[in-house]
Amino acid sequence: LRLTTTQLVLSGNLDAAHGCDRIAGVDSVRVVSIITDLGTLSGEESSASAINSYGQVVGYSTTAEDIRAFIWTKKDGMTNLGTLPSGTRSYAADINDLSQVVGASGPTRWLSHAFLWTKKGGMMDLGTLGGARSQASAINNLGTVVGSSQNVSGYWHAFLWTEKGGMVDLGTLV
Question: Which residues of the chain have pLDDT under 50?
């Protein structure tokens, strides 16, 4: 897995004090791409799914045991986020600027529950809408999580989760 960073390099006199739409005296513009190999968690493959404003990356990697969610930072490299107690595999879908990670974990891909991971609290099961499965897709900087879950009838519905209100079926708000 490789992380690509693109930088714009301007050469010459960068005097823009006159309020012009262009930068006066720029001789050349060059785009530089930097590719960073994020590695794996002892397996052969990894895949990134999201990056936050601080350059922290989340996704999943193969291990000797199965597939595990990870968080990658420039300082610490790739860190295994583990699984929920009933799980043998996990994958991370998103990360916010508070380093909170969401995804899914379970004994199989087909029997997973949405999770919220924090450095302080570890991986927390967000539950379901009464069905067997759920998966978290995104998290904002307020800690609000969205995803999908099976309801009691086995149908998939969108959900919104907050720490105060728990998981709410967005299909019931119509």
Answer: 7-21
